[in-house]
Amino acid sequence: MILKKRKIFLTFIGTILFLFYSPFTYFEAHTNIESQNKLNEININGFTEKNETHKKGIYWNEKEISLKNDRRIKVNKSSVLNFGVYSKITKEISFERIVNNQLTKTILKAESKIWGLGKLSVKKNNFNNIIKKKIDEIYSEK
Known about the structure:
Blueprint: H1 2-21, E1 24-39, E2 42-58, E3 74-82, E4 86-99, E5 102-117, H2 120-140
Antiparallel strand pairs: 1-2, 1-5, 3-4, 4-5
């Protein structure tokens, strides 16, 4: 009887470990991005955008995409809260650009709440890709 309970317990623990550390990914991310533009330290305009992402697949040795390598931006604050099934990632980014021959400073605050299974590197890459696309959109505006 004890051997049977031990086998069930070890199978349960093995299944949980396999789900959390396996290469299989299935999660849903809700990302909110807020932006504020400043000209001569005066707020001019801003926007709020919400993105929803559903991701599933198999990922082997996923390398993390870092925003620190991008010379255009400066990461002011960054935090990660990971409980396995629930993750929350936040970043505050600032960058300067020239609009109409005036230097404009933009502050971008992004927060993502992620529900699902998968490696944290895959979740972070999804978040960083959303931020990179938004920064590219802002830089392409005139």
